[in-house]
Amino acid sequence: MGRVSRRAFAVAALSAFTMIPQASAAPGRKGGAPQPEMRGVWIASVANRDWPSKPGLTASQQRAELLTHLDTAVRNRLNTVFFQVRPTADALWPSPYEPWSQYLTGTQGKNPGWDPLGTAVKEAHARGLHLHAWFNPYRIAAHADPARLAASHPARQNPDWVVTYGGKLFYNPGLPEVRAFVEDAMLDAVAKYPVDGVHFDDYFYPYPVAGQSFDDDAAYDEHGGGFPDRAAWRRDNIDRLVRETADRIKEVRPRARFGISPFGVWRNAATDPLGSDTRAGVETYDDLHADTRKWVREGWIDYIVPQLYWNIGFAAADYAKLVPWWAGVARGSSTQLYVGEALYKAGAPAQPAAWQETGELSRHLTLAGDYPQVRGHVYFAAKDVAADRIGAMARVVADHYGKPAPPPR
Q: Which segments constitute the Glycosyl hydrolase-like domain (predicted)?
């Protein structure tokens, strides 16, 4: 198969026990002390992807759906949920910084009558699950009309913070005041709730849109001095967000872990000899200005979950080539490596033949088990764990999750 389009890769990236038993070694490990194994699932709230199933449900209906997702995780012997609590510069908790999410009531800023994040943390812990609060730092809206935002929205109050790109609204990562604000908004939840982790997905600078440029000229003119080019300045902006967030988490909630789930290709080997043997249409270093390899090697984050959303043998981005590449990046670092898995592709009619096979995902875990740096897997996403349309998740559980396992700490 030839080069994969940028759009195809962007779509792929779109689409992030009451008793805890003694830890068991992850499958396939060769000797050594048993290590806690990540068995995670993302619960996406953006566009009502996983939860709530639609906006405007009653508080009791929303709560019931959320608890069902937690129970489903336990039933599949998972141990961690990654709960999206700030999908579009909004909040799934009572925040003094940003409005209530529209995905709860259908109206941004409208109080849903309960506290989803507070409930999720309490109920996850009651089931022996860890909960990582999942934030999207810079996305404001999936449309380009600021007037559709709540009147109190910070993006309306600070229009100079906003960049319109690809028909969507984004905060400008190049403005120090934006970076400080989004950190404050996210850390509010971390300070208020005993979350076990803080989680970012793959969106930093937006995915490229053909024929359009991200207009940060004024910010670059003001803050870009001393950098060899705009790309280096943009990468530094994202590096600062990562480092500062890590430092602030340690101050506010020292035991909480900080992790990121980037798009699965840092750079292609044709671009950089340190890159992977891939021909991806998107490279995070160049296109999203996210130097994901550096974050691992420098130990800025506690864990990384590259979204390896491709099948074994996929020519442009082969799972069997990307796992050893990421294992090599993590080797010798303090950053734990988990693998993001595309459960949503299993049985989807538009996907290649490999994804029509029930055992594809199970083979992923078998392959990854040969690399001791791989400390577990996270599945996208909760709706697909529940539906399990061709039994791919059940096969993973049968083949690899014979007993419950405690979450990594």
A: 37-350
